[in-house]
Design brief:
Radius of gyration: 18 Å
Mean pLDDT: 91
Strand order of the largest sheet: 1-2-6
Helix content: 25-40%
Number of helices: 7
Shape: globular
Largest sheet: 3 strands, parallel
Structural class: mainly alpha
Strand content: 5-15%
Order of helices and strands: HEHEEHEEHEEHHH
Low-confidence stretches: 219-227
Distance between the termini: 33 Å
Amino acid sequence: MNAAGYVRVDDAARERDVCFRANATGAEAIAQACARLGLPMVAFSSDRVFDGSLGRPYLESDSVSPACVYGESKAEAERRVASAHPEALIIRTSAFFGPWDSANFVYQVLRDLQAGRTVKPSEGIVSPTYVPDLVHASLDLLVDGERGIWHLANQGMTSWRELAKRVAAEAGLSWRAGPQAVQDKPRITALSSERGLIMPSFEGAVSRYFRECEVDWNAQGFLDAAE
């Protein structure tokens, strides 16, 4: 299971070579090795292989249309992995957050609100993905011998702003956000699936995050508060 990669989306434009080396060349090398040894492989891709202009959640059969360097690198990785290892399982996912790390949007919202800072969500509509659910579903597909592209994200979609408001409400924190430009047609990179909807709802996943979180996001310690 190749969970490595370059994930600094905003930096990718000025570090294109580094991004492609990690996301595409590296993934291809692992796929080649797995194919040579007869090993199954799982590679992770992103909703950023789409530009959000379709107007609905994307399905596995929709054509890729990346609008940023990071998305280009993931689309190229998909192509290379599929070519090197036709039996590989390629999982596209979106906007993930988990209970064990601080490198995600949900954690940053909690830290900003706890510190009295204004939250400034990005524009766009996504399918938030809870990492424990993603891991369980990925392993299930691997055990079942699935191959090709699968979309795995918690069911449903939301804007980054509404996700931040939901997180604040779950945490019992006062909501404060900066002004947001009105979009005539918001960018929708939410994911759905024509192969099977096997992930639970994102609303339930956000609630479970607060029961399972092991990251200290406030001064008192989240574990103490949860207990």
